[in-house]
C-alpha cells in the first residue's frame, strides 16, 4: 500500500497537503489502536483471535474506498480500517517473541518473511500499474487484505494466559525511566524523519522521471536490504552494544535522506541510499523490539509494544507526514527529506547522551 497510495491519491486529484493528511492517518491510528489491542491481548491472552478479528474487520472497512468518497469521506474510511489493520502487527510481535522463548535472537529470521511478502507484492503491483490506471489500485489491494485475514486463521489459537498483576505503579516506573524516555524520543524522531519517505518518496521519484515499476523496485530494494540485515542481526547484537548500533543506524539514516534529497537522478547513488534502509528500519526496529522486552518484561510486554507502536510509528509518523506536506507544498519534495535529515541530527545527540542498555532478563 505505502509505495503507491500517495500516487493513487495524487491521481484522484488531492492536493499535497490533503495527501499528507490522508497518509498521516495511517500512522495516526497507531497512537490509540495498539494500546487498546495490546491491553486486550495482555488481559485475555487471546492474541491470535484478536489478530483474526482485526484482519477481517479492517478488510471490511477498506471496502469503503470503492465508494470513492471525497476528502473527508476517505479520511473517515482510512481512520476506520487502519484502526483495526494497525492492531495486527504489534500483537504478532508479541506472539512471535513468546513462541521463540529464549531464542529471541532468531526473531529477525521470522520477521524477514514479512519483507519477502512486501517485495513480491510491490514488484507485482508495480508491473500491473504500468498497464492499468493508478485509480484501480484499490482493486489490487483488496485481495491482499483478504489474504491477511485468511492467513490469520492458519496460526494456531493461543491458550488464555491470565497472569497475576504486576506490582502497582511498575508500568509508570518503566515509562519514566530516563533510558526508556530516550528510547522513545529516538524512535519518535526516527519516524518523524520517515514522514517524507512514506508520504512523498514515490511522488519524488515520479517527478524525476521514474516509472511505477522502477518506483516499486526501489521500494523493494530497501526491504531486500532489510532482509539481509535481519539475517545477520543476531551477530551484530553479540558484537556491538544497543547504543552503538542505534547511533550508527541514525547517522546512516541521516545520510540516506540527504542523498535522496540531492542526488535522485543518479541511479547508483539512489540504490545505495535505498540499501541504507537496512539501518534506518531493519537495525533500529530489531533492537527496539528486544529493548522493549528487556525493559517492560513479562507483565507489561504487550503494553510496551503498544507504546512503541503508538508513540513512535503513530505520533512520530503522523507528525512527520503532516510536516512533510507543508515542506513539499511550500518548497519541494527535496526540502521534506532535508527536514528528515535534521530530525536525525537531533536524534543522534539525544541518543548519544541518554540511551542505555535494557536490564538483563
UniProtKB/TrEMBL annotation:
Name of the protein in its database record: Major facilitator superfamily (MFS) profile domain-containing protein
Record keyword Mitochondrion present: no
Keywords, in A-Z order: Cell inner membrane, Cell membrane, Membrane, Transmembrane, Transmembrane helix, Transport
Xref: InterPro entries: HcaT-like, MFS_assoc_dom, MFS_dom, MFS_trans_sf
GO CC entries: plasma membrane
Transmembrane segments: 20-38, 50-67, 73-92, 112-132, 138-157, 169-190, 210-233, 305-323, 335-355
UniProt cross-references to Gene3D superfamilies, sorted A to Z: MFS general substrate transporter like domains
Membrane topology value: Multi-pass membrane protein
Localisation per UniProt entry: Cell inner membrane
Signal peptide bounds: none
GO molecular function, one term: lactose:proton symporter activity
Organism listed in the record: Marinobacter algicola DG893
Domain Major facilitator superfamily (MFS) profile residue range list: 179-361
Main location: membrane
